[in-house]
Specification:
- The complex is a heterodimer of chains A (414) and B (411).
- By secondary structure, chain A is an alpha/beta fold.
- Helices cover 47% and strands 14% of the residues of chain A.
- In chain A, α4 packs across α13, α13 crosses α14 and α14 crosses α17.
- Chain B has a seven-stranded mixed sheet, sandwiched between helices.
- Chain B is globular, with a radius of gyration of 22 Å.
- The chains are: A alpha/beta (414), B alpha/beta (411).
- At the A-B interface, α1, α3, α6, α7 and α12 of A face α2, α5, α6, α11 and α12 of B.
């Protein structure tokens, strides 16, 4: 049989795929894959932003397990969700971001659809803007931004530009630089803002700075695209982390918003997210909704149930919701503690560099300030895995490995 | 203030979902939904497969499992076992390591990923102008998936012969002969949607001969494996035959129907290439496409399917559950045909039992369909397509009588 098949195959002179090049490994997810291959027992994975407990293990939230048990007992069917997703989820998702009493929700002028986590949300958003926001093709990302933002918008047909954001000299926010750049952005362009816990830098504007940004963005008549992947994870407080989003809306910006529940509910692989368009009124929201469905259907028809059901159960059940708030707070606190420990250990190692930014930055990530060559050394010599831009996921730091990590960082920076 | 979205027009709703919506709002107690393609029990209820319930319990109880990200291409044990289902465990392609797979969001997601890849990489870069052929008629979302992936030329190939209510083989072969070389053809692996009309083995081999000679690309859509005849292997005959013939091809698999996992979005794009090196490079490019679309696929459904397929007793139980569904459909087909014949309904109704799978192309015209909906509260697609699963022993008399009345009174 094999010979016969081989004979058949010879009738093709070539493969359809002979010209297909080997694609480069994904810069972020590729890190985890390299980590897995490493046999060094001291290896540390500070690559992908997935929370780990102090034993370095994945953490399934207790409220998630409880929600799962509740759901299992209900014996629900598996019928297709609507294209826009589970209603119980999308309503709660919008409320979480905008606040229970938000006028936008009350007047029905938002449309919120369930998406395939944050990536799926950004992609639907990019597709929507590409098709309907025809006055401007440019999306302005902060410099730097999450690595996957650029390919997503590009693949959707938008053009990418940048505004100053991170100041490598201070490892902090370059507020003046940002304002300068934003003031020059052509009207109607799309500006991407990280709602909280900026990825990859961990550098967030302060409220007074957000206010000035909101003002300037309004003057420039820009379309605001908020990416909120870490609500609750940044400060530990849901409302505090959503403050910028809510402020902008209050100031009259009709924003578009991506939300992810990968990190704050630990539902990474279940792919739970939302995409919201704040419209002029309920009638416009209906039209926008119909077009979002037209965009979603030829990609995956309708979204997966499991994660959305879990999230909805948590958000809509008072004691589970309360438990969730506590667990998010706990995760954020552990991160903050690790930041403090890392700095303390670096000092203990004898480092004389200024590491204040490690504590000032917020959320899962820390922009260490390490240069690519230093990162390479840290990986090769110490089996510490992180992205080339010097970003580390604080979630991968534990009281057990923080000493070793400090050793490595000090070694490559002294 | 001028809204940025002031000019966004209201889009027309997707027909099949609008139908279900209208059905829901109909107060008539006799109403029957023969629209959307989901299995129903004889009580007219959704059916969560017993094996699925069992495996769900296993998953919830297993504290070692968590919700971490899957790899970009999905759960490895799902991908390999899903491909085995399509190609057969002993497939030469698998043994020669020239099969790859991408876990996707349902059959739609698998078609989408395949389409996006082809548009970028098939036959040189940039295939926006490469013709993509879909059957006339076909699942309505096929057109959108390929158009949305950037293909500017999505065309029909002759398939359904309305007059003789069967396959237009000559038309099909004719279109294969005249299609520009390297055109992409979307083939229904079994249980053609919406006609329920599949080529015979001999007819498939004729199709394969032309496609090989004219270097046309084979893209199978396999959404009903097991559901058509009740036997997984039988339903995969065409796919496996094409593999034996040496084709490089894509096969978009859905586990929505045969596992009843509709809302968990479980799909697999199986890739058969000439050798392992080609597979490797293809998969690396698939990763890039996945990353800008959904990053990595959802965990629950794939886990469930992988556990089921990889454990002998569970696999056997699943095959049994699939046969249960397929058998009920066959029973409803036989029953409907018999009743129409007994009523003396004008026309021939053999196609009801000759057609295969979930759907039947009744041959009712749009006016007759409108009559069925408006006057009898029986909901079916404007094309005359009915979902056999919507029939039960309790409503089949009403449906048969209604079809009879419609055919007699409405032309």
């Amino acid at each position: 049989l094999q010979a016969a098949v081989a004979g058949q195959l010879k009738t093709y002179e070539h493969s359809w795929w002979s010209e297909v090049q080997m694609g480069p490994p994904d810069p972020i997810l590729g890190v985890s894959e390299a980590y897995k291959r490493d046999t060094n027992p001291k290896k540390i994975n500070l690559g992908v932003g997935a929370y780990r407990d102090d034993q370095g293990k994945p953490y399934v939230l207790s409220c998630v397990r409880k929600a799962e048990a509740q759901i299992a007992a209900k014996k629900l069917d598996k019928e297709y969700l609507a294209i826009g997703g589970l209603g119980d989820f999308t309503k709660a998702c919008a409320k979480l971001a905008l606040g229970d009493d938000n006028e936008v929700i009350k007047s029905g002028r938002n449309i919120t659809v369930q998406t395939i986590s944050g990536t799926g949300s950004l992609r639907i958003g990019a597709n929507f803007l590409s098709r309907f926001h025809t006055e401007a093709r440019d999306v302005y990302l902060p410099k730097p931004s999450w690595g996957n933002h650029t390919p997503i918008f590009r693949d959707a047909g938008m053009q990418l530009k940048a505004y100053t954001y991170y100041d490598p000299k201070t490892c902090g926010f370059d507020f003046q630089g940002a304002l300068n750049d934003i003031s020059k952005i052509p009207e109607k362009s799309v500006i991407m803002l990280h709602a909280c816990a900026h990825n990859p830098t961990g550098v967030d504007p302060r409220p007074e700075q957000w206010k000035e940004i909101a003002d300037l963005v309004k003057k420039r008549n820009l379309l605001v695209f908020f990416d909120m992947a870490y609500q609750g994870f940044a400060s530990g407080d849901i409302d505090r982390d959503a403050w910028a989003v809510r402020y902008f809306i209050e100031q009259g910006h009709n924003i578009v918003l991506s939300q992810s529940f990968a990190k704050n509910m630990g539902l990474y692989g279940e792919r739970v997210g939302g995409f919201t368009v704040v419209c002029k009124d309920a009638e416009e929201a209906k039209r926008v909704e119909s077009q979002l469905k037209i965009l979603i259907r030829p990609i995956y028809s309708n979204p997966p149930m499991n994660g959305a059901r879990i999230a909805a159960t948590i958000l809509n059940t008072p004691d589970l919701y309360k438990e969730w708030l506590g667990e998010v707070h706990g995760m954020a606190n552990r991160i903050i503690t690790m930041r403090e420990l890392l700095v303390a250990n670096l000092k203990k190692e004898g480092s004389t560099r200024n590491w204040k930014h490690v504590i000032d930055q917020i959320g899962m990530f820390c922009f260490t300030g390490l240069k690519p060559e230093q990162v390479e050394r840290l990986t090769k010599e110490f089996s510490v895995y992180m992205t080339k831009d010097g970003r580390i996921s604080m979630a991968g730091v534990t009281s057990g490995n923080v000493g070793y990590l400090a050793q490595g960082i000090h070694a490559v920076t002294k | 203030i001028m809204s940025l979205f002031g000019e966004v027009p209201q889009a027309t709703p997707v027909a099949v979902f609008k139908l279900s919506n209208d059905f829901k709002e109909d107060p008539n107690p006799m109403k029957v939904n023969l629209g959307v393609g989901a299995y129903r029990t004889d009580e007219g209820q959704p059916w969560v497969l017993p094996v699925v319930k069992k495996v769900e319990k296993l998953i919830v109880a297993d504290n070692r499992l968590n919700h971490e990200y899957l790899p970009i291409l999905g759960l490895p044990e799902f991908r390999s076992s899903a491909s085995k289902i399509a190609l057969g465990e002993d497939s030469p392609a698998i043994q020669e390591s020239r099969v790859g797979a991408v876990q996707c969001l349902g059959g739609t997601g698998a078609l989408k990923m395949g389409a996006e890849f082809l548009r970028r990489w098939y036959n040189g870069n940039d295939n926006m102008k490469t013709p993509v052929y879909v059957s006339a008629p076909t699942w309505e979302n096929h057109n959108s998936v390929f158009a949305n992936a950037g293909f500017k030329d999505v065309r029909p190939y002759k398939y359904w012969d309305a007059e003789k209510r069967g396959l237009d083989l000559d038309g099909f072969l004719g279109d294969l002969e005249t299609a520009p070389k390297h055109s992409i053809f979307v083939l229904h692996a079994c249980a053609h949607n919406p006609t329920g009309t599949d080529p015979t083995h001999v007819e498939w081999m004729q199709v394969a001969e032309v496609m090989k000679r004219r270097k046309l690309f084979v893209f199978f859509d396999s959404a009903y494996q097991g559901f058509a005849s009740g036997c997984l292997d039988k339903d995969a005959w065409a796919v496996r035959n094409f593999v034996t013939q040496g084709f490089e091809m894509f096969c978009a698999q859905s586990f929505s129907k045969n596992f009843g996992l509709y809302n968990e979005r479980v799909g697999n794009l199986t890739i058969v290439a000439r050798d392992a090196d080609n597979v490797r490079r293809v998969l690396s490019q698939m990763e890039k496409i996945v990353r800008v679309t959904w990053s990595n696929p959802p965990s629950q459904g794939a886990r469930l399917v992988a556990i089921t397929l990889n454990r002998a007793e569970l696999f056997a139980e699943w095959k049994d559950n699939v046969k249960t569904m397929a058998d009920r459909v066959l029973l409803m087909r036989a029953s409907l045909q018999a009743k129409l014949q007994a009523l003396g309904t004008p026309g021939t109704w053999d196609h009801i039992t000759q057609q295969i799978g979930m759907f039947s192309f009744t041959g009712l015209n749009p006016k007759q369909v409108e009559y069925m909906i408006k006057e009898r509260s029986i909901y079916l697609m404007a094309s005359g397509r009915i979902n056999m699963c919507g029939l039960t022993t309790k409503n089949i008399d009403y449906v048969a009588k209604s079809i009879h009345e419609t055919v007699v009174n409405v032309q």
